[in-house]
């Protein structure tokens, strides 16, 4: 008995193809030069503003790198970090994990320049990503080719901030698990923490390593330096007292951070654990030995971080003002 053959009608195939096409329109991947048609000067404008701000306020470059970390580690690279507390939204910046973050007002400087050139075209999420990329270069680090096309969240993710961003006092195993949840392997985590090569730490976050007794894993001379920077065990939380992880090249992103770790000059507990933990210690040594290799792995880690679960296609929105969702 002959088996009946079933043929899909041309109409069915057309409808099926249309559904697939609409699906891909709604959810698409990040891509190179996403703004080549809608705002051809977008990346040049961001680079120009980042450069100008760096020459006026050098610490902005460090802020751009930290913004990327705090935005992308919390659910999505979607600029949710930048939202203010208003209209039922609680800002992620209210979390203790955001302590010490600064220069948010200069994000608006970059965004305003973009809005003048091409209104409502460039997302705040892409401003976060590309300002970090250009800030890394200003700090002497590697250039990282980033894709664009991120869109902005209409909601804050305050409730999951503390479950997403590791604390400086967490165990290294917990820190690794946080990063591994977004796809970073151990080497990538050690490379990404190389961002501690620049910037500074408020005394309130490190005095527990100095008082009442000095942490034995700290180099004694380094501990004396830290005590000079932080002379009291009970500093005011917002006091402008701080210490640097890297005194030799404090505003240059390089492998001096790892050399200092090997010399027992890790500022935070998480830094010190990179050397003491057998899982991470070999990578500390590799990066200390080879700055080019550190740059290579750092660039890979930053790129992976920057592509964590972005909103794309018709998800989210393009905010006019990075601090607030657009009016409905």
From TrEMBL:
Main location: secreted
Sample GO molecular function, one term: peroxidase activity
Pfam families the UniProt entry points to: peroxidase
GO cellular component: extracellular region; plant-type cell wall
Residue sites binding Ca(2+) 1 per the record: 71, 74, 78, 80, 92
Protein EC: 1.11.1.7
Range of residues in the leader sequence: 1-26
InterPro entries for this protein: Haem_peroxidase (IPR002016), Haem_peroxidase_sf (IPR010255), Peroxidase_pln (IPR000823), Secretory_peroxidase (IPR033905)
GO biological process: hydrogen peroxide catabolic process; response to oxidative stress; response to stress; rhythmic process
Catalysed conversion reaction: 2 a phenolic donor + H2O2 = 2 a phenolic radical donor + 2 H2O
Compartments in which it is found: Secreted
Disulfide bonds: 39-118, 72-77, 124-322, 203-230
Active site: 70 (proton acceptor)
Cofactor(s) named in the record: heme b; Ca(2+)
Keywords on record: Biological rhythms, Calcium, Disulfide bond, Glycoprotein, Heme, Hydrogen peroxide, Iron, Metal-binding, Oxidoreductase, Peroxidase, Secreted, Signal
Top-rank taxon, per record: Eukaryota
Cofactor, free-text remark: Binds 1 heme b (iron(II)-protoporphyrin IX) group per subunit. Binds 2 calcium ions per subunit.
Residues binding Ca(2+) 2: 246, 249, 254
Marked site positions, Transition state stabilizer: 66
Amino acids binding heme b: 196
Described purpose of this protein according to its UniProt entry: Removal of H(2)O(2), oxidation of toxic reductants, biosynthesis and degradation of lignin, suberization, auxin catabolism, response to environmental stresses such as wounding, pathogen attack and oxidative stress. These functions might be dependent on each isozyme/isoform in each plant tissue.
Family stated for the protein in its record: Belongs to the peroxidase family. Classical plant (class III) peroxidase subfamily.
Protein name stated in the entry: Peroxidase
Gene: LOC109011226
